[in-house]
Amino acid sequence: MKVLRTLDARFEGLPDFPFAPHYTAISSATDTPLRLHYLDEGPGGGAPVLLLHGEPSWSFLYRKMIPPLTAAGHRVFAPDLIGFGRSDKPGAESDYTFERHVDWIAEWIEMIDLNSITLFCQDWGGLIGLRLVARFPERFAGVIAANTGLPAGGGQIPFAFKIWLAFSKLVPKLPVGWLISKGCVKGLTDAEKRAYDAPFPDESYKAGARVFPTLVPISDAHPSVAENKQAWAKLERFDKPFITAFSDRDPITRGGDKVLQARIPGTEGQPHATIRGAGHFLQEDKPADLAALIDAMIARRRRGAV
């Protein structure tokens, strides 16, 4: 396996991103050790919050949610998925599978021994995150799912997603910063777009970003359908607090909140939210609202309420 590593200089001077990098080596999913980067912010005794990003972003996506969460006394972890951010980037699209992504983050969770986790997950962070909840239900205290889901075949591919599939495969240069800006209602500054481009010095670093859309198991012909069905069997018994927080301007995941609410017992009676004035990357549009949802979930748990 050829592995690429983005130079540290690419991450210097990023706007609103003063966080120190942390690294761990993982190797369970492949024979090649890979360096996984994560943020670890807040007091050591704080309630652990896990923020999982998706495609094609990285932990920079959470830069405006981390300060209010740590100010509230929580300890925040935000890893970069393999292939993204400051984490290592296998060079071939065939190096990436749904199962490997789940295994990579699962190994990291076990290595740092995260427990009593409040999970916030969006996009592929949700596909991976929900599989992790199914694998380790005892490690999770609550979940907030935003603009995400867990497809398991048998579905129709939304037109907006068909366009994204074609674009991600055919465009000569994948414009990561531009794409994320287009997925926000407010847009991004040039400096913010450069920060999203920072992990990818050239196209050879973008194998993970290009292949991710093809790994979504929407139809029965996709890989990972069986694994996701097995995960659903466990999620349909998950009765800890589970909140949906979908935005009102995301054409790709619209309606996915109702699917989660219908199937996961922990959603019953929860204060589900529609995040107004937000696009697919709602962490950019409404970070304070999302941080407040996480803090409120932890506060209810501490009061002994659901």
CATH level-3 fold name: Rossmann fold
Q: Could you give the distance between the termini?
A: 46 Å
Return residue spans where pLDDT drops below 50 for at least 5 consecutive residues: none
**Strand order in the sheet with the most strands:** 2-3-5-4-7-8-9-10
The percentage helix is: 25-40%
Strand content: 15-25%
Alpha-carbon Rg, integer:
18 Å
Structural class of the helix and strand makeup? alpha/beta
Number of helices: 11
Order of helices and strands: EEEEHEEHEHEHHHHHEHEHH
Mean pLDDT: 96
How would you briefly describe this protein structure?
The chain is α/β, with parallel strands linked by helices.
Break the fold down into its secondary structure elements and pairings.
Layout: E1 3-4, E2 22-26, E3 34-41, E4 48-52, H1 66-71, E5 75-79, E6 89-90, H2 98-112, E7 117-122, H3 124-135, E8 140-146, H4 159-170, H5 176-182, H6 190-197, H7 207-211, H8 225-235, E9 242-247, H9 256-263, E10 273-275, H10 282-285, H11 287-303
Parallel strand pairs: 4-5, 4-7, 7-8, 8-9, 9-10
Antiparallel strand pairs: 1-6, 2-3, 3-5
